[in-house]
Design goal:
Order of helices and strands of chain A: EHEHEHEHEEHEHEHEEHHEEHEEHEHEH
CATH architecture of chain B: 3-Layer(aba) Sandwich
CATH class of the largest domain in chain A: Alpha Beta
Radius of gyration of chain B: 19 Å
CATH superfamily of chain B: Thiamin diphosphate (ThDP)-binding fold, Pyr/PP domains
Distance between the termini of chain A: 51 Å
Strand order of the largest sheet of chain B: 2-1-3-4-6-5-8-7
Strand content of chain B: 5-15%
Number of strands of chain A: 16
CATH topology of chain B: Rossmann fold
Oligomer: heterodimer
Shape of chain A: globular
Radius of gyration of chain A: 21 Å
Order of helices and strands of chain B: HHEHEHEHHEHEHEHHEEH
Strand content of chain A: 15-25%
Largest interface: A-B, 53 and 48 residues
CATH class of chain B: Alpha Beta
Helix content of chain B: 25-40%
Helix content of chain A: 25-40%
CATH topology of the largest domain in chain A: Rossmann fold
Structural class of chain A: alpha/beta
Number of domains of chain A: 2
Distance between the termini of chain B: 44 Å
CATH architecture of the largest domain in chain A: 3-Layer(aba) Sandwich
Number of helices of chain A: 13
Largest sheet of chain A: 8 strands, mixed
Largest sheet of chain B: 8 strands, mixed
Number of domains of chain B: 1
């Protein structure tokens, strides 16, 4: 279905990534957000608070991130497409409800504009050190989807994609921005509403008698009902059967948790997005994401001028990790070079997927700025030897 | 603070055998009149013999009958704990959320679909300890929620630990030598934070409780009803207070109905009197009314009221 023109600010804009993310949410049909102020993410909800009363929606500033991250899920079960926005310390507080969203299959979007950590860390400076937290931060086994924009334009485009994936798979989607992308101002083109594809909610059309809130067919994603629709359904964070009733037996746990995992892992190929460049014949592939991909671009280009055969693989989807893609490439190249604004997070996934068939080189950075391209270049040169 | 305090409906003194005719009519049915509100396919429930939570659910169901509320627009949200399991037993759109977060979940639900009547049904530990911040802020905002707080004076689900409501000198598993920290007076707390309706009953006062719940349904804004409820397994046993019947006798002897009592005077002690009644019944615009007024004033015709947020 096409986007509702009410929320789409069609035109060519000069805007930062935080504002573009907000416009993406509105274009995707989000009419509810709950937030709590935190640098460097607050501009997203500030703009939403200003815009949403004119398009028929609500923003509420909650008393903390725990409240924001569950209020948005109340909003979803009330019928809205909803999201929240935060940065590291707030993201830590939201982990409980990422688990709740995964367990109850509440489609929603968590935006994390990453800053340096741990703890209060570097409130106004960038990092990419929440990447593992995005995947593993809540307890138990579950899968999420995580996207990594590298420009304000992508903050718009991929926020829409994040909402669409959340609806398609009934899963919390992590939108992993960083301080630089959030505060960088560039040209953002917002197309007409009829050119924006929006995935509607998987609302059930079944009768009250036939509806099983957590019953699924081939694609492992159940149909949803909203409060007030007359289904008298039950939602719980406890292990539950297809009726949504608590059932804390090992077989029900096994069936549920494996389905939550498989509905994402079986669809990795459909979910994964990347940008590739000169992969064929490359000796070394630089794997990067977010702002680091733009810094790496410079290093890649200089290396090519020096006659090195360097390919680029930019992860737009970080989770689920495109394991097969890396495994296939590992058979063809000497090495992967993985620069990121942390002391080595996604590089572990690359190394695991490469399984010793190709070497893996990390280019770590503790955060607070971006890499010097020369530092990446040095490792590329080393990796080609 | 307690203007427009109408207590006609609640004047049903202890020991009065008058029967409400509505309830009488329902009581001549061959079926349990509250059964249609329950998920009978989930019985038996997990609550201990003598637990008061089921009694409160009975009063809640009778309030639904009395108030003739549209069940289709009614949603119930619980947190975690013994009372948190209420959401699983009522045949309504029901949400068993995370520990302490029933109120913020309910806030989102109400804001996304203002047509819903949203009830929060949870325990004292859930609502006033881990969820205490949400409790006071929801009262401050005057979000249109009906909060039923079953107060059994202890963390029961986890085995009898001290709660913010546990009276001084009680023995608990985490204060084996006696509780020495002061407890919360919940009606006082929520009145100070801004609730428009505040009442307290015990599980002995089943009809008054049902009527208070019915009254709360007529209010627009943050309503809070505390129900003192027995936990024979973990509170009474450890404190040598007998069984559930002893709890009923205790409530009957110690309860004093004092409608309009200043909430600063209704704090609970282990052996003292239990002040019950309707303490607060006042008018104050609720969050959504204030929001609409503010946006209308500031945005004029540009304001689009969020009535239909439902995405297809």
């Amino acid at each position: 279905m096409k986007a509702d023109p009410k929320g789409v600010l069609t035109g060519i804009h000069f805007m930062d990534g935080d504002h573009a993310c907000c416009e993406g949410a509105l274009a995707a049909g989000s009419r509810f957000a709950a937030g709590y102020p935190i640098t460097p993410s607050t501009e997203v909800v500030e703009r939403f608070a200003s815009r949403v009363p004119t398009v028929g929606g609500t923003f509420i500033q909650m008393e903390d991130e725990l409240a924001a991250s569950i209020a948005l899920q109340g909003g979803v079960w009330g019928g809205a497409k909803a999201f929240t926005v935060t940065s590291g310390p707030g993201f830590s507080l939201m982990m409980e409800h990422i688990g709740y969203a995964a367990m109850t299959e509440t489609p929603c979007v968590f935006v994390d504009v990453q800053r340096g950590g741990p703890s209060t860390g570097l409130p106004t400076l960038p990092a990419q050190a929440d990447m593992m937290q995005a995947k593993w931060g809540s307890h138990g086994d579950y899968e999420v989807i995580a996207l990594c924009p590298n420009s304000p334009q992508e903050c718009f485009d991929l926020t829409i994609k994040a909402f669409n994936l959340a609806e398609e798979y009934r899963v919390p989607v992590m939108f992993m921005m960083d301080e630089v992308v959030g505060h960088m101002t560039e040209k953002v083109v917002i197309p007409p509403a009829d050119e924006i594809e929006v995935v509607p909610r998987r609302h059930t059309h079944k009768s009250v008698e036939d509806y099983l809130p957590y019953g699924t067919n081939g694609d492992l994603v159940p149909e949803m009902a909203h409060a007030g629709d007359g289904y008298n359904f039950h939602v719980t964070g406890l292990t539950h059967d297809e009726r949504g009733y608590p059932n804390m037996t090992p077989p029900v746990q096994d069936k549920l948790v494996r389905r939550l995992q498989n509905k994402i892992l079986n669809a990795v190929d459909r979910i994964s997005m990347f940008e590739e460049e000169e992969i064929e014949g490359a000796d070394v592939i630089v794997v990067s994401y977010g702002i680091t991909s733009r810094v790496a671009q410079r290093a890649i280009e200089v290396a090519r001028k020096q006659g090195l055969r360097v390919g680029k693989l930019r992860l737009i989807t970080a989770w689920p990790f495109p394991e097969k893609k890396i495994r296939d490439l590992a058979a063809k190249v000497k090495a992967f070079v993985v620069p990121e604004l942390n002391l080595g997070q996604m590089v572990r996934e690359v190394e695991r997927a490469a399984a010793g068939k190709a070497k893996t080189f990390a280019v770590s950075h503790a955060g607070g700025g971006v890499h010097n391209p020369d530092d990446i270049l040095k490792v590329i040169v080393e990796a080609t030897r | 603070m307690t203007d427009c305090l109408n207590t006609d409906l609640l004047d049903d003194p202890l020991g009065d055998d008058r029967l409400n005719t509505d309830l009488l009519d329902n009581s001549i049915s061959v079926e349990n009149p509250v059964e249609r509100f329950l998920r009978s396919d989930r019985m038996p429930h997990i609550w201990c013999p003598g637990c008061g939570i089921g009694t409160t659910v009975n009063s809640f169901a009778r309030a639904l009958i009395e108030s003739k509320i549209d069940l289709g627009s009614l949603a119930l949200v619980s947190g975690i704990g013994c009372t948190g399991r209420v959401a699983g037993y009522v045949k309504l759109d029901s949400f068993h959320t995370t520990h302490g977060r029933a109120i913020p979940f309910a806030t989102g639900l109400k804001l996304a679909n203002p047509k819903l009547n949203v009830v929060v049904y949870s325990g004292d530990g859930d609502l006033s300890a881990i969820g205490g911040n949400h409790l006071i802020h929801a009262a401050r905002r005057n979000i249109d929620l009906k909060v039923i707080c079953v107060n059994n004076l202890i963390y029961a689900m986890t085995g009898g630990q001290t709660a913010p409501t546990t009276p001084d000198h009680s023995t608990t598993s985490t204060n084996p030598y006696g509780v020495f920290e002061p407890s919360f007076n919940l009606p006082h707390l929520v009145e100070a934070a801004g609730a428009v309706y505040v009442a307290r009953w015990t599980t002995f006062h089943v009809r008054q409780l049902a009527r208070s719940i019915s009254e709360a349904f007529k209010k627009k804004g943050f309503s809070f009803i505390e129900v003192i409820s027995p936990c024979p397994t973990l509170y009474q046993r450890r404190n040598k207070m007998g069984d559930a019947l002893d709890a009923m006798k205790f409530y009957k002897e110690k309860s004093k109905i004092r409608h309009g009592a200043p909430t600063s005077e209704v704090g609970m002690t282990m052996t003292g009197e239990i002040i019950v009644g309707k303490f607060v019944d006042r008018e104050r615009p609720d969050y959504q009314t204030m929001m609409k007024a503010q946006y209308t004033e500031s945005l004029g015709e540009r304001f689009v009221e969020p009535t239909e947020m439902v995405c297809s």
